[in-house]
Amino acid sequence: MPEKKTFKITHNRKWCKDCGICVAVCPKKVYEIDRGDRHAIVRSQDCIGCQMCVEHCPDFALTVEEVKDE
Amino acid sequence: MRLDFLRSERLPNIWCPGCGNGIVLHALLEAIDQLQLDPDKVVLVSGIGCSSRAPAYTAFDNVHTLHGRAIPVATGIKLANPDLTVIVVTGDGDSSAIGGNHLIHAARRDVDITVVVFNNYNYGMTGGQASPLTPDSSITTTTPNGNLDRPFDLVNLAAGAGATYVARSGIYFTKHLVDHLRKAIAHDGFSLVDAVAQCPTYFGRFNKKGSAGQMVTSQKDWMVLKSVAGKKTPDELAGKIIIGEFVNIERHAPESAAAPKEQA
Fold first, then answer.
1. Which CATH number do you get for residue A46?
2. ipTM, 2 decimals?
3. Higher pLDDT residue, A40 or B127?
4. DSSP alpha helices (H): ranges in chain B?
């Protein structure tokens, strides 16, 4: 069985406007809205790299890259 | 999408949190990237409105014109320099109301430009007034008791005016949107893509459509693929809109006949 891939999520806080679209579109519930009404990356180990959040981010604030250990 | 297509110093953009315009712009840049166009040969032309701010965030050449007059300027650019890829970035009000006449006549002349309509169903920049694409009985600032008028069907309007490539897609279906934008840009002739976005600040709030995230994901429920829609009854399709490619005719545009491209 192939090993589970890991992904690095980069979140540009300066560009993000906390709209919550990434929370709504993520199929693995990687993001969550915290008490301060700001969303946070809480389960990055669950990310499957589908790029849904990247494609749906209106503020170009997210990038998801596969982590390759050499 | 290549990040060097963006003017990073201009970001964050001015759009409200959850605005769909950014998603359409992302898809447009992705389509340009997939076509591997020379960034120096791409021109984005826009009119006035929320959507028309989009070219200012891209590294391509862009012209910000008068309200509704993006298509005449784009026609001029294309005629003066047919080597350029000219894309008009426009909103629903900008293209169908103020620039409605330019839209149908550019379609009739079959100018080789691509019109990308960022359709958020109202005039977002000025406070959420009704546009010609606002659906029947929707609440906006100018129609507080519900819109009495029927909306334009932009796809049929463009097809009836003679556009040779017409497609509609939604921002939830980003792969579908990128696919059709790519085909529209590569198409030789007038092409129009109706990209259905959302305005959570005005249209969504007045019509109780929920948060920005709910508005994006709800597109799954009220959009039907054209291939699937053929098998459904009219009752099942009530209140839904069909997405997909509606017109795709290959014919040479007038200016490509005047200045024929060299065949390899």
1. 3.30.70.20
2. 0.90
3. B127
4. 21-35, 70-80, 92-93, 100-109, 154-161, 174-186, 203-206, 212-217, 219-222, 226-229, 254-258
Q: Please give the pLDDT value at position B257.
A: 52
Residue A1 lies in a domain: no
Tell me what percent of the residues of chain B surpass a pLDDT of 90.
Answer: 68
| Cβ count near B234 (within 10 Å) | 6
Is A19 part of any domain? yes
Residue A21 covered by a domain? yes
- Report if residue A11 sits inside a domain: yes
Per-residue pLDDT at A70 exceeds 90: no
pLDDT tens digits for range B56-88:
999 999 999 999 999 999 999 999 999 999 999
Residue B129, min C-alpha distance to chain A (Å):
23
Closest alpha carbon within chain A to B172: A56
- Which residues in A lie closer than 8 A to residue B217 (C-beta atoms)? 24-25
Around B34, how many Cα atoms within 13 Å sit in the side-chain half-sphere? Answer: 17
Three-class SS state of B154: helix
Residue B177: band (very low, low, confident or very high) from pLDDT cuts 50, 70, 90: very high
pLDDT tops 60 at residue B217 = yes
**Interacting residues of B104 by C-beta distance below 8 A, sequence separation 6+:** B157, B158, B161
Tell me: pLDDT of B127 over 70. yes
Shortest Cα–Cα distance, B23 to chain A (Å): 5
Residues B212, A19: C-beta atoms closer than 8 Å: yes
* Tally of structural domains, chain A: 1
State the residue range of the domain holding A57.
6-67
Walk me through the domains of chain B, giving residue ranges and CATH numbers.
3-250 (3.40.50.970)
For residue B4, the distance in angstroms to the closest alpha carbon of chain A comes to: 12
CA atoms within a 13 Å half-sphere pointing along the CA-CB vector of B134: 28
Chain B residues touching A24 at Cβ < 8 A: 211-214, 216-217
CB-nearest partner of A58 from B3, B21, B30: B21
Q: What is the mean pLDDT of residues B206-231?
A: 90
